[in-house]
Design a protein that fits this description.
The protein is of the alpha+beta class. It contains seven helices and five strands. A hairpin with a 5-residue loop joins strand 4 and strand 5. The N and C termini lie far apart (140 Å).
């Protein structure tokens, strides 16, 4: 049972083995979404379908797959009848009636009909047998099929390992583990440091030098006393020159300059 058979890729040995598998009593169930997937893996001239005795097809979404299934179903003959009335156009009834029948070939199912198959229908093509349009068997709805359902097996762990049927080689024995605790491990709770948290070490931080507080650069500087002394001396010299000039203008005041 190979579901999504084309997803496995090209298996050359499997393609050639399908021809003689039936002689050994082997049956293969190959499931694929469309014939295009098989052609992509094995090429257009593959022999996968040639070695399939039974082919089951459902409603497909691919036009090429529907065309190939329609061609594989073949054609059927159907009868066509054609009636022709003749007579004078002004007469109350036509006096001549001609009926002709002919047989024409028609596809058993057209590609459109195959793509529109109901979900409950399927097409079965068996070698040497006319195609069959059947209903899908739902085992959960059929009483007879429900009786054949096997309960899933209970998985149990084997007590001992048995040799395989291919090589007959005895499997290796499992290693014997020493359960004794060494003396060093008794004193240390975690000798292997398995529970220790490992993280990259950080470089030692440098000491931060304390710097002076930066003064407010927008604050107005306090007045300078040296500038006040210079202005005071300049004003005093100017006053002294004015007094000396006034004294020089009055020669009789008795002040010698």
């Amino acid at each position: 049972m190979l579901d999504e058979f084309s997803a496995l890729g090209r298996l050359d040995f499997f393609e050639s083995a399908l021809a003689f598998m039936a002689g050994y009593g082997l049956k293969a169930f190959l499931i694929s979404q469309s014939l295009n997937q098989i052609e992509k893996a094995y090429g257009p001239n593959n022999s996968i379908l040639d070695n399939c005795h039974v082919r089951v097809s459902f409603a497909t979404n691919d036009e090429r797959t529907a065309k190939r299934v329609s061609d594989a179903l073949g054609t059927a003959t159907e009868m066509k009848a054609m009636k022709t009335y003749a007579g004078h156009r002004l007469s109350p009834w036509l006096g001549h009636l001609m009926v002709s029948r002919s047989e024409t070939a028609r596809q058993l199912l057209t590609p459109g009909e195959i793509m529109q198959l109901p979900l409950s229908d399927e097409i079965i093509m068996v070698a040497g047998v006319p195609p069959i349009r059947a209903k899908k068997a739902r085992y959960y709805e059929d009483r007879r099929l429900r009786e054949r359902i096997l309960t899933p097996p209970t998985l149990t762990k084997p007590e001992s390992v048995q040799a395989d049927d291919w090589s007959n080689i005895e499997p290796p024995k499992p290693p014997v583990l020493d359960t004794r605790v060494p003396a060093e491990a008794q004193t240390d709770d975690d000798p292997t440091e398995s529970e220790r948290r490992h993280q990259p070490e950080l470089s030692p931080t440098k000491t931060v030098e304390r710097k002076d507080v930066i003064e407010n650069e927008f604050e107005i500087d306090p007045p300078d006393d040296s500038e006040d002394d210079t202005a005071r001396l300049s004003h005093m010299n100017q006053t002294m020159r004015q007094v000396a000039r006034q004294a020089s203008l009055d020669p009789g005041d008795g002040i010698d300059l």
